[in-house]
Amino acid sequence: MQRLKTTFLLALLTVLMVTMGQALGGRSGMMMAFVLALGMNFFSYWFSDKIVLSMYGAQEIGPQDHPMFYNLVRNLAAGAGLPMPKVYIIPSDSPNAFATGRNPEHAAVAATEGILRILSPEELEGVMAHELAHVQNRDILIGTIAATFAGAISMIGNMLQWGAMFAGGRDDEEGGGIGGLVGSLAMAIIAPIAAMLIQMAVSRSREYLADATGAEICGRPLALASALRKLHMGSQALPMQEARPATAHMFIVNPLTGGGVMQLFSTHPPMEDRIARLEQMAVRR
């Protein structure tokens, strides 16, 4: 069900981007947007993992560098039937973790120094099981594609706004007049917001799925629930200063601060809902 929902949402993003391309430049603009989407997804597929790991200064480790953490990941991957991912540590005191990579054969998991300090081995196991669940479910690629589409739609929206303000040439040629100008401006404003909301819906649905799959991988739903409580409080007390909105969806808890209206635009589900679902899983076991 979650996979079907994700496919539908990604299809909506594709249609929205192509429609905006058509508004920007007719059929040629539509084709340009389609080619742009293909190109960006190709780039994202091959290079997004290297970019995000470099962005956060992640350092790859082996079994001799941090035996407990490395072996914990190795045991979880073996239990889940996954290839051993590369393991990284991020030099940040803010407690958090993420997974990246285009598929299970080219995956990586990363944890901050802060998370390694505050979690018990069982809680850390729950967190890394969550990240391996993202690898198993191919959520990293899905999230990257959604973010890429949303960013491209926002860029096209900006181009539409400038075009509507300075020219409106196509409106004159096609007889659109004021109505065409208003329509272009409306699409330029509404479409990027719609794309952002769709991207966030994709992210939230995959987080719920990763919590459930991760709890199955480690066999300890309550350990993951306990870890989420600590991480939620820790990230609020010590937000990750180097975090970027474009990559916030990758982390197990939102690395960015924000309350009030910003909660409506979160890439993560409400923490109390995630914890409640895990506690219900523990009761059913």
Fold topology:
Blueprint lengths: L1 H54 L3 E3 L5 H14 L5 E5 L6 E5 L5 E6 H6 L2 H16 L2 H28 L2 H6 L2 H42 L2 H17 L33 H14 L1
Parallel strand pairs: 2-4
Antiparallel strand pairs: 1-2, 3-4
Helix pairs in contact: 1-5, 1-7, 2-4, 4-7, 4-8, 5-7, 7-8, 7-9, 8-9
Q: Please give the number of β-strands.
A: 4
Radius of gyration based on Cα positions: 21 Å
Beta-strand share of residues: 5-15%
**Low-pLDDT windows of residues:** 169-177
Write the H/E string, N to C: HEHEEEHHHHHHH
| Average pLDDT level | 82
How are strands sequenced across the largest beta sheet?
A: 1-2-4-3
Specify the oligomeric state.
single chain
Question: What distance separates the N and C termini?
Answer: 22 Å
**Number of H- or I-type helical stretches:** 9
Structural class: alpha+beta
Q: How is the biggest beta sheet arranged?
A: 4 strands, mixed
Query: How much helix is in the residues?
Result: 55-70%
Q: What's the shape?
A: elongated
What does this structure look like?
With 285 residues, the chain is of the alpha+beta class. Helix content is 69%, strand content 7%. The chain is built from 9 helices and 4 strands. A 4-stranded mixed β-sheet has the order 1-2-4-3, sandwiched between helices. Helix 1 crosses helix 7, helix 5 (139-166) runs antiparallel to helix 7 and helix 7 packs parallel to helix 9 (271-284). Its EC number is 3.4.24.-. This is Protease HtpX homolog. It is found in: Cell membrane.
